[in-house]
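_Per-residue structure_
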Amino acid sequence: MKIDALVAEIGSTTTIMNAFDGLNTDNPVFLGSGFAATTVAQGDVNIGLNQAKINLMQNLNVTELLAKDVFASSSAAGGLKMSVHGLVYDMTVKAAKEAALGAGANLKIITSGILDEYQIENIKKEKLNIIMISGGVDFGERKTALENAKIISGLKLNIPVIYAGNIQNHAWIRKFFEENHQEQYLYISNNVYPKIDCLEVDNTRKIIQNVFEKHIIQAPGMEHVKEIVNETIIPTPGAVMEAAKLLQSAIGDLITVDVGGATTDIHSVTQGKEEINKILIAPEPFSKRTVEGNLGVYVNKDAIIEMVGQESLLKSLSISYEKLNDLLEDYKPIPDDKQIPLTEKLTEIAFDISLKRHAGKLVYMYNSSGKVAYAEGKDLTDIKYLVATGGALTKLPNRLEIIKNVLNKQSDLVLSPSPKTTILIDNDYVMASLGVLSKKYPIAALKLLKKSLRIE
């Protein structure tokens, strides 16, 4: 069987292989999926990729499967591990953070100001994939970014470093890296914070994804991935962002939610309302991602239970302490019938907390004119659609009720989506794959995404 494309989603524990055909026609088709355990830890991700392909072939009832293009997204081995180092936390550091998260990074270290000895040791120990240096608006402060670049180039870590700060520093930055024989690892981007109250993160996000693709094939266990994958490889969260932006351009402002086993990711693509933008304390990116690393319904279930409190959980589920212990002792990544009510409640809690943290809020201050309203954070009040993707919110029986419950309980002071927001489910669970596919087949990817979301 010959098809147009395979897209692999290489997760920390599971590898999914999705098959697509008819990508240059008016009716592109999602053929099906195959699953296998991820095998980065065994030293070769291709073992899992081939096993997922075999499972896909069994599901399609074919003995041969040849694809013209093979794409991939990856969050294996900790995903894209980055650090960002800027000048002031609420300004250049925030801008660099937004660029990194939106590209799909897992941020391990965030610092402001000139690096100290403790922070330098952290950088050396963390086994980062990419380091980003920012700092200073264009033609503004220069010293902090220059000092940090001098320190980081001197560490000779042999990993990619992206400079996205004051453009006046470019010549000196290049000089530092050349003197330390690190020039092949240096990438220079546009300033992510070129002037006060202005974020420009898109160029840097593209560079991050290009750098990730170039260097991921050198990571342990990933060295041979290009023997199978002949097209784009990007971080899985970055792939979801690509799909979200593509969909927003077609149907309007939206938010995507993925409650996973280890983390909860939220992406929003919206400018927000004009009246809110006028009172924003600090600028927000058009497309924003937040990730809650301790809010997951399997690996981090204990963290969620601790946050909400065991007594509150028992009351909401109407079960005894003993019953809860029994469920937790035999807790599975894919819930059985007995476990589903607990998993659904944990999903609701993770989504509720994550949405509150992603959304902005109204704050009131007093000045000589009296009480004045300001806004801080991302305004989600103009959102038209909520897209549920990931395992929990596409598979759990009461997924729609979970989403509605969360939307209905938001505070008036939180700039969250309206309870009347239209809910869309990624029924085929292909949003990340289509984000990667959109790099080459944007029209087909959009049509397939609409099919998965059951949009006419």
User: Anything to note?
Assistant: The CA atoms of residues 135 and 145 lie 5 Å apart. Residues 1-77+430-456 form a domain with the Nucleotidyltransferase; domain 5 fold (CATH 3.30.420). The chain has a mean pLDDT of 94. The chain has three domains: 1-77+430-456, 79-212, 250-425.
